[in-house]
TrEMBL record:
This is Citrate synthase. One of its GO terms (cellular component) is cytoplasm. GO terms for biological process: tricarboxylic acid cycle. It catalyses: oxaloacetate + acetyl-CoA + H2O = citrate + CoA + H(+). Gene3D superfamilies: 2.20.28.60, Citrate Synthase, domain 1 (1.10.580.10), Cytochrome P450-Terp, domain 2 (1.10.230.10). Keywords: Transferase, Tricarboxylic acid cycle.
Length: 424
């Protein structure tokens, strides 16, 4: 960050002028430093933090108007098609893509930490069998600090780094187990001879009775891309939550658990689940045309189209659509709901109403279809999102702890009662 040459903002308050520095990043709009407003006895007001930069970061950049998503400068479509998820993890954590030797070493570290403490498996028994998998994840991930408390010194860079590896390695195990627990099947332990995504799918769907179960490589590739496309997304609600929790000095497992909690919200991580619910409500292909007319009349919401950040197109969606087509072709699925989804896509991409408003299918639309086709239940969709986003969360947590930081303390515009006395 550097001061923008010759640029400053001047704010007039109560007949006085306050000069506010303007800083420039390497990309994106300049930012106005408003700290000095506090000395004048005023706060700034920005509900939802729509125009507030709460931190400085080198990890991810988004230009919503142009449909750009960069991780450490690399476009997301290149990472999704030319790198695998663990390479993307290395990039987010370290700032550069790994060479062959670094990749082999990093992959080995992750493989060596996929197992969890045996007592963690017993921890699951405290949950009801019909518990939502996200509820299980919030509890179990937060409890990891009770099992790995020998690496919780956040001032020790070695502790921070091993914790990052542990989280990336163990979250897939916990995610798969949260599914197995709710369906009453025995846990499948990780296999270190399998790739990251392949290992996750094996733990999800293999059973002790089927010792020869093999993961379809097309599905493993699709899952790896889903992980990559969801790895990080700048200062979204869950990432901001992790940073805020981290600013208190809380242990990293508690911070990641807080991120999972924020992601659980239907306005954040539940979007692809909402797509499937919408398809259920539409019912059949014959009802699509009328549904889209209702969308135009603003009688119903069209889920999985358009994006709050991307005002043009979601750069992740193109890769996800390609992956979606590959999965559906490979599986040869004749699912009425998937046919319905394809009809929705067809109308949205050709109807002038949606084209003019740039309501293109986004990453959530296609990821929901892929996950359903693979056989993953809807209640697991957000769990998989959390699995993929863990590396983004821990990368931001690491970045924050590598530099001086202050505890987060948002202000407020108080509109309640003024001071009054109790009268009896």
């Amino acid at each position: 960050m550097s001061a923008a040459t010759g640029k400053k903002a001047v704010l007039q308050l109560d007949g006085k002028e306050i000069e506010l520095p303007i800083y420039s990043g390497t990309l994106g709009p300049d930012v106005i430093d408003v700290k000095d407003v506090l000395a004048s006895g005023h706060f700034t007001f920005d509900p939802g933090f729509m125009a507030t930069a709460a931190c400085e970061s080198k990890i991810t950049f988004i230009d919503g108007d142009k449909g750009v998503l960069l991780h450490r400068g690399y476009p997301i479509d290149q990472l999704a098609t030319q790198a695998d998820y663990l390479e993307t993890c290395y990039l987010l954590l370290n700032g550069e893509l790994p060479n062959a030797e670094q990749k082999a070493e990093f992959d080995a570290k992750v493989r060596n930490h996929t197992m969890v403490h045996d007592q963690v498996s017993r921890f699951f028994n405290g949950f009801r069998r019909d518990a939502h998998p996200m509820a299980i994840m919030v509890g179990v991930v937060g409890a990891l600090s009770a099992f790995y408390h020998n690496g919780l010194d956040i001032e020790d860079i070695n502790h921070r780094e091993i914790t990052a590896i542990r989280l990336i390695a163990k979250i897939p195990t916990l995610a798969a187990w949260s599914y197995k627990y709710t369906v009453g099947q025995p846990f499948i332990y990780p296999r270190n001879d399998l790739g990251y995504a392949e290992n996750f799918l094996h733990m999800m769907f293999a059973t002790p009775a089927d010792r020869d179960y093999k993961v379809n490589p097309i599905l493993a590739k699709a899952m790896d891309r889903i992980f990559t496309l969801h790895a990080d997304h700048e200062q979204n609600a869950s990432t901001s939550t992790v940073r805020l929790a981290g600013s208190t000095g809380a242990n990293p497992y508690a911070c990641i658990s807080s991120g999972i909690s924020a992601l659980w919200g239907p306005a954040h991580g539940g979007a692809n689940e909402a797509v499937l619910k919408m398809l259920d409500e539409i019912g059949s292909v014959e009802n699509v045309a009328e549904f889209m007319e209702k969308v135009k009349r603003k009688e119903v919401k069209l889920m999985g189209f358009g994006h709050r950040v991307y005002k043009n197109f979601d750069p992740r969606a193109k890769v996800m659509k390609q992956t979606c087509d590959e999965v559906l072709e490979a599986l040869g699925i004749n699912d009425p709901q998937l046919a319905l989804a394809m009809e929705l896509e067809k109308i949205a991409l050709n109807d002038p109403y949606f084209v003019e408003r740039k309501l293109y299918p986004n990453v959530d639309f296609y990821s929901g279809i892929i996950l359903k086709a693979i056989g993953i239940p809807v209640e697991m969709f957000t769990v998989i999102f959390a699995l993929a986003r863990t590396v983004g969360w821990i990368s931001h947590w690491l970045e924050m702890h590598a530099s001086p930081y202050k505890i987060g303390r948002p202000r407020q515009l108080y509109t309640g009662e003024t001071q009054r006395d109790i009268k009896r």
